[in-house]
Design goal:
By secondary structure, this protein is of the alpha+beta class. The chain folds into three domains: 214 residues, Bira Bifunctional Protein, Domain 2 (BirA Bifunctional Protein, domain 2, 2-Layer Sandwich); 136 residues, YbaK/aminoacyl-tRNA synthetase-associated domain (YbaK protein), CATH 3.90.960.10; 95 residues, 3-Layer(aba) Sandwich (Rossmann fold). The chain is 25% helix and 29% strand. It contains 13 helices and 31 strands. Helix 1 packs across helix 10 and helix 2 packs across helix 5. The longest helix is centred in the first third of the chain and has 21 residues. This is Proline--tRNA ligase. It catalyses: tRNA(Pro) + L-proline + ATP = L-prolyl-tRNA(Pro) + AMP + diphosphate.
């Protein structure tokens, strides 16, 4: 490809609404353009990256035994009504009526569609297992589209679904997909962690997220460098502390203190000169319609996915101020565990606490030296707060490392949730009809592109992994008016193409600095700079990631790049 013929509209300035590097750089480097909130045109450079990501995915999925299908993006409402999700999926689902007033949705995910296909065609255990996947567009009407391709309303996704005659075979395929995803993200050149995760709206018995490590990631994860345990903070388990020995011997007398207008944990901490970890935080939740009081250490936050699991709940929400007073008889900001009319459920973080500060149950007052067991009872200790770096690993006890990550893949063991609801059954060897056991496996293709930029960039632009770069090499003649430079550049360009490299020739009549800035901004891994030594048969090779520069003879460029890229 010649730059003069390419559609690569680079920009000097970032868009005003861009907050993170991938959004800024993908626009500036000419990969994407905004159409409306959460909707983007994918320009030629972006399309090249996406096709390369898709190629790796297809190769590895087919290596793993999956087969590609293409499903409609218009989903008839009756399929979602069968699964029970039409009315509960939420406002993210884009619904509409056709000319006959029939209800449809633009597919946000495809469990119903694929289950409908398989139940019509597969009848016997002899036709199982089956793993079908597609790569296509998905639609979710995000309440707040942001971060460019990270959270958009239309995106490209690979979703796969497997069907099995037994739970054991479904679990075998789950780990087959786990290994397949690990190979995919390694080939894409990404630093990632596979972490235990919550199953969320998709459902199922267990799941793993594949997280690209990046400081700008929306998600948090913890992992153990010793034993390999890794989990999202939605899923990570706290180690339940031991109750301190002779705890009662440390108890001091309760003291009421005047705290005028002081409500928030941070304010109480400053006013009483007490660290937040020595303050008891009380929260009132409505869990499946009933009020529940949660106690946790003042510096901790409730992780609602863990809260749902601890109470086996479908719906959890914080109580309103009015509900708090109605349920407890106490004012918000001064809730006390002492004398509450509701049972108190305490997070594991409360177990080691002794002589802590808590609300007094009346406005403008707090209590010092409160202790569970003496001053109030705990109905049950539960694991409902997020785990942090430095806390012990639940598997081996070593300190956990905390990172931020971007979810780019998620695999689920679904079980029979959809097959039972939609009648996807098979006849087993004994002639019995049974529901198929399912698995679900997704990769956000456009999100992978953005995540790669979040992980690979510097002040000059993008640094693509070679496997998914729009071009592997760019040849830059510094002066297209000098014949010897143009001839050398054309020769290198031709030889690289003949050798199978994906190469761009910057044949524009522009200043060298302008060309170099564009090459760095676009992020092409290797730059062959053809300059004043071209008459001597010498060019310069710049490695984008490291900035290293090498002088090479013109006839040595192909061999050196084969060596660097690992192509025989």
């Amino acid at each position: 490809m010649r730059f003069s013929r390419a559609f690569i509209p680079t920009k000097k300035e970032s868009p005003a609404d861009a907050e993170i590097p991938s959004h800024k750089l993908l626009v500036r480097a000419g990969f994407i353009r905004k159409v409306a909130s959460g909707l983007y045109d994918i320009l030629p450079l972006g399309a090249r990256v996406i096709r390369k990501i898709e190629q790796v995915i297809r190769q590895e999925m087919e290596r793993a035994g999956a087969q590609e299908v293409i499903l409609p993006i218009m989903h008839p409402a009756e399929l979602w009504q069968e699964s029970g999700r039409w009315d509960v999926y939420g406002k993210e689902m884009i619904k509409f009526k056709d000319r006959h007033e029939r209800d449809y949705a633009l597919g946000p995910t495809a469990e119903e569609m694929i289950t409908d296909l398989v139940r019509k065609e597969v009848k016997s255990y002899k036709e199982l297992p089956l793993n079908l996947y597609q790569i296509g567009r998905k639609f979710r009407d995000e309440i707040r589209p942001r971060f460019g391709l990270m959270r958009s309303r239309e995106f490209i996704m690979k979703d796969a679904y497997s069907f099995h005659a037994s739970d054991e075979d479904a679990e075998r395929e789950y780990w087959n997909m786990f290994e397949t995803y690990s190979r995919i993200f390694k080939r894409l050149g990404l630093e990632f962690k596979a972490v235990e995760a919550d199953t969320g709206e998709i459902g199922g018995s267990f799941s793993h997220e594949f997280m690209v490590i990046a400081d700008t990631g929306e998600s948090k994860l913890v992992y153990c460098p010793e034993c390999g345990y890794a989990a999202s903070t939605e899923k990570a388990q706290q180690v339940r502390p031991e109750v301190p020995p002779n705890r009662e011997g440390e108890f001091e007398a309760v003291e009421e203190v005047h705290t005028p207008g002081i409500r928030r944990i941070e304010e109480v901490s400053r006013f009483l000169s007490v660290p937040q970890k020595r303050i008891l935080k009380l929260l009132v939740y409505v869990i499946d319609g009933r009020p529940v009081v949660l106690a946790l250490r003042g510096d901790r936050e409730v992780e609602e996915a863990k809260l749902k699991k601890a109470f086996n709940a479908k719906e959890v929400r914080l109580a309103t101020d009015k509900e708090i007073e109605e349920f407890t008889g106490q004012p918000k900001g001064y809730l006390s565990p002492v004398g509450l009319p509701l049972p108190v459920y305490a997070d594991y973080s409360v177990i080691p606490m002794v002589n802590f500060v808590a609300g007094a149950g009346r406005a403008d007052y707090h209590l010092k030296n409160v202790n569970w067991g003496r001053d109030f009872s705990v109905a049950e200790f539960v694991d409902v707060t997020e785990v942090r770096g430095g806390e012990p690993c639940p598997k081996c006890g070593a300190p956990l490392v905390e990172k931020r990550g971007i979810e780019v893949g998620h695999i689920f063991k679904l079980g029979t949730k959809y097959s039972e609801a939609m009648g996807a059954t098979f006849v087993d060897e004994q002639g019995n009809e049974k529901p198929m056991v399912m698995g679900c496996y997704g990769i956000g293709v456009t999100r992978v592109m953005a995540a790669a930029v979040e992980q690979g960039h510097d002040e000059n632009g993008i640094i693509w992994p070679v496997e998914i770069a729009p071009f592997e090499v760019i040849v830059i003649p510094v002066n297209v008016k000098k014949e010897e430079i143009v001839e050398a550049a054309e020769r290198v360009y031709s030889e690289l193409m003949e050798a199978g490299f994906d190469v761009l020739l910057d044949d524009r009549n522009a200043r060298p600095g302008f060309k170099f800035k564009d090459a760095d901004l676009i992020g092409i891994p290797y730059q062959v700079i053809v300059g004043k030594k071209a008459s001597e048969g010498v060019v310069e090779l710049k490695i984008r990631r490291s900035g290293e520069r090498l002088e090479l003879p013109v006839d040595g460029v192909v061999g050196k790049l084969r060596e660097l890229i690992g192509r025989g």
